[in-house]
Design goal:
The protein has a six-stranded mixed sheet with strand order 1-3-2-4-5-6, sandwiched between helices. Strands 7-12-8-9-10-11 form a six-stranded antiparallel sheet. By secondary structure, the chain is an alpha/beta fold. Helix 3 packs parallel to helix 4. The radius of gyration is 19 Å and the shape is elongated. Helices cover 39% and strands 25% of the residues.
């Protein structure tokens, strides 16, 4: 299997930009994108060869827009869209395909893709679409309230939602069903380990999408999770001060 870190091709400077993740296995099309997308100066562009490599990127860093082909080796676009739809519902997806509509029958749209662009892709059309979906606002952005307090409020309201927690140390995802925390992702960690790492983050920005599609991996009640996180924080402070 190809090492995804070797397959990444960052064709813009990463400073203070949104991130576009593009999954395409055809080398000629990749070359077209490397040349044409340089004018997308407000985005950092990462090109990978398939959905498996795209998923690896999603685990490691924030992504604002995904553009994917459908027919790719190892993991195709349909599988990638399903993963994004379930675990990263805040990220818009654009599908590019040379398949006739009778072949895909709009399946990507049902899986959660935002739009379908036919191949051969017209670069100005793609750039316009990326900027359009990339400027889409999340259901809500929350500032000025501690994450643990927000989770308690959502528990009282029995919210179903996915929280995107951004910090200088990385991006985490928290998933709630009827106010209970059922799953979490932080970089390569999932489940309880990810929860405690996210709750330990400082100076976070929180966005929420009013949908939760993941399966439960966490059975501990939210109140117990928050108590454990507070105890871990106190232990770290006392340890650093000794």
């Amino acid at each position: 299997m190809v090492d995804s870190t070797e397959a990444l091709q960052d064709i813009t400077s990463p400073q203070d930009k949104k991130t576009l993740l593009l999954a395409e296995d055809d080398q000629a099309t990749q070359a077209l994108f490397r040349a044409g997308l340089r004018s997308l100066s407000d985005y950092k562009v990462i090109i990978v060869n398939n959905g498996l490599e795209a998923h690896s990127v999603l685990k490691k860093q924030p992504v604002d827009v995904i553009v994917t082909d459908l027919h790719m080796p190892e993991m195709d676009g349909f599988q990638l869209i399903s993963i994004v739809y379930e675990h990263y519902p805040h990220i818009p997806v654009i599908v590019m395909t040379g398949l006739a509509e009778t072949s895909h029958q709009n399946a990507p749209l049902f899986l959660g893709a935002i739009d379908i662009i036919p191949k051969p892709v017209k670069i100005p059309l793609l750039i316009g679409q990326v900027r359009e979906v990339g400027n889409r606002k999340p259901d809500g952005v929350i500032k000025g309230i501690p994450l643990n307090s927000l989770l308690q409020l959502m528990a009282w309201e029995r919210k179903n939602c996915s929280l995107t927690v951004r910090s200088e140390h990385g991006l985490g995802m928290l998933y709630l069903q009827e106010g209970e925390l059922i799953h979490a992702i932080f970089k390569e960690s999932e489940g309880l380990d990810a929860v405690y790492k996210i709750l330990a983050l400082a100076k976070v920005q929180i966005e929420f999408t009013e949908v939760c599609r993941v399966n439960r991996t966490i059975a501990i009640p939210l109140t117990e999770l928050l108590l454990n996180a507070a105890m871990n924080s106190d232990l770290e402070k006392s340890g650093s001060g000794s």
